[in-house]
Write a structure and sequence with these properties.
By secondary structure, the chain is of the alpha+beta class. It has 4 helices and 5 strands. A 5-stranded mixed β-sheet has the order 1-2-3-4-5, with helices on one face.
């Protein structure tokens, strides 16, 4: 056997081993995804979308998958000490869905996923229900009104959240002792 033939055979074996290893890693990664996304195609990752219309919104998404029916499902990546989703995750994903739908015209599912990588090394997925387009537009308009001074801000639903606000010291209407947060309707379902 000549040296050229031996090098060729070794090169082919190395390429085959590398491809097989990549396939194994991809299969293991897909098994860890929620069942709905295992056969989906990753179509957008770390991409910026801009919706221009009645309201303008720019959103950067973590991951978007195209399901077999052609619709898009979003996945938001988070690293947290606690394995849970927050209403802010739903707002963030809803804004992303709005921006994608307006910019591309594609159908985005009303359900999305929050992937939480815990400090303990475990990963959990939470299915959440997104806000409607009308609700996202209302939030955008409310933000504009707040920034323009045309509307008054309300307290956060948690005093701890209120205390982390950049404007906490400037807020003239701090909650008094005995103040209890107003509980609204549940935004999404935990899975």
């Amino acid at each position: 056997m000549s040296i050229v033939t031996a090098v060729t055979v070794v090169s082919v074996l190395v390429v085959c081993a590398w491809c097989f290893l990549r396939w194994l890693i991809r299969q293991r990664w897909r098994r860890n995804l929620p069942r709905e996304l295992r056969n989906a195609q990753l179509v957008y990752a770390e991409r910026l979308f801009r919706a221009v219309g009645q309201v303008t919104l720019t959103a950067r998404l973590d991951r978007a998958y195209r399901l077999q029916d052609g619709s898009i499902t979003l996945l938001e990546l988070k690293t947290r000490a606690v394995h849970r989703w927050y209403p802010s995750d739903v707002i963030e994903l809803s804004a992303q869905a709005y921006a994608i739908a307006v910019e591309t015209g594609e159908r985005v599912n009303r359900n999305a996923f929050v992937e939480v990588q815990g400090l303990d090394g475990r990963t959990t997925f939470h299915r959440v229900e997104l806000l409607s387009i009308d609700e996202v537009e209302a939030l955008i308009l409310r933000r504009k009104a707040l920034l323009a001074g045309e509307a008054r801000a309300q307290y956060a639903c948690s005093i701890r959240l209120c205390q982390t606000c950049a404007y906490f010291d400037q807020c003239g209407g701090r909650p008094q002792s005995g103040w209890y947060p107003r509980r609204g309707p549940r935004v999404g379902a935990r899975s």
